[in-house]
Amino acid sequence: MPTSGRWWPVSSGPVLVTRGLTAGYGGPPIIQDISIEATPGRVTAIVGPNGAGKSTLLRTITGVIRPQQGQVLLDGEDVTGLAPEQLIRKGIAYVPQVQNVFPTLTVHENLEMGGYTRTSGLRERIDQLYAMFPDLQAARKRPARTLSGGQRNMLAMARGLMVDPSVLLLDEPSTGLSPRFIAAVWERIRLVCSTGVAVVVVEQNTRQTLAQAAWAYVMVLGKNRLDGPGPDLLRDEEVVNLYVGRLT
Length: 248
Fold this sequence. Notes:
The chain is of the alpha/beta class. It has one domain (16-247): Rossmann fold (3-Layer(aba) Sandwich). Helices cover 37% and strands 23% of the residues. It has 10 helices and 10 strands. It has a 6-stranded mixed sheet, sandwiched between helices. The protein has a 4-stranded antiparallel sheet with strand order 2-1-4-5, with helices on one face. The longest helix has 16 residues, at 179-194. The radius of gyration is 17 Å and the shape is globular. Pfam families: ABC_tran. This is ABC transporter ATP-binding protein.
């Protein structure tokens, strides 16, 4: 599969939509009037500087934070304000930047924990994910704390996929990784997309992320500043001068 450029398949309409989301932590809103769409089989990127509200947006979508205004739609159903466990059952998986695996459990036990909502097919799903993430199969008996940063991020991604989500939200999956592991993480993200999952990636590694994204949103101070096809934004003079140079 190509590693850059317009590799994504033609997709149907959006599976995840937010309309005018405004949310915060009890004080002034951190995000204001945020509207995004994510479609099956494609990467949707959300980029921007620290403090832009990117992670707050993901927490609002996944029910960790209740929005002050706006809607979250999943396959056309209004799921605004549902609890995180309800959203998991409906098909939204969220992989936070930190504390995303159980360090004392083995790789295999982490995957079993990720499938706690499944009523059947647990072993088959784990086998599918071992095929998608062969490094995890080789390390299946190791405690998660002994894995490298890249391996832990892949384990976190695989745990999220245990529920067969239609949408996978990834918060800074390449942070702190070497270039080799960044490339490996993106290879797995592309593989996940090829199965029809809509992947939403929050990142500060702007060049890499925009190059991979079918569509991208640039957030600044809690608001959408720009959006468009990721590779096109990389060639946009305003984006390069104002954002890419200082975010990369």
